[in-house]
Amino acid sequence: MKKAALIFTLFLSLILAPLCVSAQIEPRPRDRNAWMKEMQQFKNDFISRKLDLTDEQKSKFLPLYNQMDEEVRGIQEETRNLEKQTVDKGDKATELEYEKAAEALYELKGRENVIEMKYFDQFKSILTPKQLFKLKESERDFTRELMNQRRRHHKK
């Protein structure tokens, strides 16, 4: 009888243990693309509100702005990948690899500026001079807002 109870208890614990563990595990992180899309929408709404864009301006400006943002993110990712490859090699990285990675890091801002200036001319035909001036400030405010939200979220 005691043996049957012991086997039953052991059996039950084997079945219930994984359920208890899975209940404690955080849900998987959301899909990165979905998260990026959500962030882009949040940024679009934030900037539209800060610049007080009309519906017509939104319909013309936001697709261009998102395209510019995508190009900038592309070169940032490219640079991060080169940096990561060099770091991952550690002592096995050659002097040339270090030099190329360093050069890419230093050139990044310049490459970002080239892209932004390409779009600046297009933005001029959509935004007022004041809105165009406030765009950079709005981007900084957006980044600051994200940092503040993250800080508040992690205090909990």
Blueprint (SSEs and pairs):
Blueprint: H1 2-24, H2 32-51, H3 55-89, H4 95-124, H5 129-155
Helix pairs in contact: 2-5, 3-4
Describe the structure.
- The protein has 156 residues and is mostly helical.
- It has a domain of 77 residues.
- Helices cover 87% and strands 0% of the residues.
- The protein is built from five helices and no strands.
- The protein is globular and about 55 Å long.
- The chain starts with a helix and ends with a helix.
Keywords:
mainly alpha
| Number of distinct beta strands | 0
What structural class should be given to the helix and strand makeup?
A: mainly alpha
Query: How is the main sheet built?
Result: none
User: How far apart lie the N and C ends?
Assistant: 50 Å
Which regions contain 5 or more consecutive residues with pLDDT less than 50? 21-27
Strand content: under 5%
* Radius of gyration, CA atoms, in whole angstroms: 25 Å
Work out the helix count. Answer: 5
Helix content percent band: over 70%
**Morphology:** globular
The succession of helices and strands, N to C, reads: HHHHH
- Rounded mean pLDDT score: 85
